[in-house]
Amino acid sequence: MKTSSNHGFGTRAIHAGQQPDPTTGAICTPIYQTSTFVQSSPGVIKGEYDYSRAANPTRDALQDNLASLEGGKYGLCFSSGVAATGVVLHLLSSGDKVLLCDDVYGGTNRLFHRVFAQLGIETVLVDMTDPDRVTEAMDERTKLVWVETPTNPTLKVIDIERVSEAAHMGGAIVAVDNTFASPYLQNPLALGADIVCHSTTKYIGGHSDAIGGALIVNDDEIHQRLKFVQLSEGAVPGIMECFLFLRSTKTLHVRMDRHCENAMKVAEYLSGHAAIEKVVYPGLKSHPQHDIARKQMRGFGGMVTIYLKGGLEASRKMLERVAIFGLAESLGGVESLIEHPAIMTHASVPAEQRAKLGISDGLVRLSVGIEDADDLIADLKQSLA
Questions:
Q1: Structural domain of residue 323, as residue ranges?
Q2: Final residue before a domain boundary, out of 249, 275, 308
Q3: Same-domain pairing of 113 and 193
Q4: Which one is catalytic: 12, 143, 202, 365?
Q5: Environment class of residue 114 by beta-carbon count within 10 Å: exposed (0-12), middle (13-18) or buried (19+)?
Q6: Is 227 assigned a catalytic role?
Q7: How far apart are CA 66 and CA 242, in angstroms?
Q8: Residues 153 and 268 in one domain
Q9: ∠ CA(178), CA(156), CA(320), 5° rounding?
Q10: What is the CATH number of the domain that holds 224?
Q11: What is the CA radius of gyration of the chain?
C-alpha cells in the first residue's frame, strides 16, 4: 500500500515506507542481515546498496516510516539518541554558538558541554519557556537552537513556533528533541523547526528491547549534510534494531493513547496525596505551560514528575518499595518505570545546575506504562504509605 500525507496517522504508522516483499509477498519488511551487496560490475550497484553502513533496505523502510509520521521529507536513523544529537552538532564549526534549552536529558547536557566544547563550540543555557530570552541570547555566532519539549525531567513545555521564529530571525536553525511527545502527539516541523530528533529507544520503540535514534528533516541541504555525517561516522543502527522499531511504530498511536490516559489518572491521584509536595504534568491545569501544551500537542504524554515531601529519604523509601513500577533508567516502554534523576539520569549535570532547575533530591520521574491504571495507582499508594 502506498501512503500519503492524506492518510491518517494509524494508517501511515502501519504502512508508510513498507511494501510487501516483491519476491515472497511477506507483509513485514525483511531483515536484510547483510554487511555488503554484490555488484554486477565495479561501481555498478542495485539502487544505492553497496554497503550497509551507507544504506540498507530495512533501515530505509524505517527512515521513510519515521519521516512520514513526523510529516517530514527525509529520515535518518542512528545507533542511539545521543548519536543522532552528535550528528546535528557536526553541522557546526569551531567558534559557533548553540543555545541549549536549560532543562534537557543529562546525556544531551554532557554531550554539549563536555564533548563538543572541546571542539570550540560554545553552549549557552536558556530558559526557553520565555521565547524573548532566546532573542536576547542570539548573536552573529549563534548557529543552532536546541529545544527539548516537554523537557527532561521537569516537564517544561516550550512554544516551538515562537522559539523557531526567534531563532530564524537571528539566522540559526532549530532542532527539537521530540522524544517525550513522540510523533503521535507533536510534530515540530509543522511548527517551524528544521530538525526533529528522537531517541527511538523510548516511545517509538516502546518495548525496552532496542536502542536507537533518528533525525527527520524537510530541507534538502540539511538532509545531505546530515546524511554525509551518518555515512562518514557510521553510527548507524543494527538491522535487527531497525526491524524491531518498524514492528513498534505499527502500534505507536494505540500505545500513546493508553500512556496519556494512564498518566493523567496517575497525575490526578498523586496531586491529592499528602506525601506529595507538587505534581508536574502538562495535562494538569496547574502546569505553568498547560495552554501551550494544549496548543501544540494532541495529548500530554506518559511522563509525570513529582516532588516528595521529605527529600532523599522519602524518595529512596518510595523507590525501594514499588512493585509494578520498575526502578530503572529510560522511559517510554509499555511497562511503567520510575527513577531518581539527581542520582540516576541527570547525575552528570553539575549540582549547581540541577539546583537551579529544581532537580532536587525529592524529585522523582515516572514513565507511566500501559498496564491497568488501577494497579499502578495501588502500587504508588502502597509505596507512599
A1: 252-383
A2: 249
A3: yes
A4: 202
A5: exposed
A6: no
A7: 11
A8: no
A9: 90
A10: 3.40.640.10
A11: 21
Q: With contact defined as beta carbons under 8 Å apart, do 197 and 178 qualify?
A: yes
H or E segment to which residue 109 belongs: helix 106-110
135 domain residue, yes or no: yes
Our answer to whether residue 74 is catalytic in this structure is: no
Helix axes 57-69, 239-249, angle to 10 degrees: 30
Catalytic residue among 12, 74, 103, 105: 105
Residues 244, 257, single domain; the answer is no
Q: What is the pLDDT along the chain (385 residues), one digit of tens a residue?
A: 788 889 999 999 999 999 998 889 999 999 999 999 999 999 898 888 999 999 999 999 999 999 999 999 999 999 999 999 999 999 999 999 999 999 999 999 999 999 999 999 999 999 999 999 999 999 999 999 999 999 999 999 999 999 999 999 999 999 999 999 999 999 999 999 999 999 999 999 999 999 999 999 999 999 999 999 999 999 999 999 999 999 999 999 999 999 999 999 999 999 999 999 999 999 999 999 999 999 999 999 999 999 999 999 999 999 999 999 999 999 999 999 999 999 998 988 888 889 888 899 999 999 999 999 999 999 999 999 9
**Active-site residue, 177 included:** yes
50 is catalytic: no
Tally of domains within the chain = 2
Given 177, 194, 361, 379, the catalytic residue: 177
Residue 1 lies in a domain: no
CATH of the domain at 379: 3.90.1150.10
- Give the domain-ending residue among 192, 224, 249: 249
| Segments of 102-141 assigned E as strands | 122-126
Mark whether 201 and 241 lie in a shared domain: yes
pTM, two decimal places: 0.96
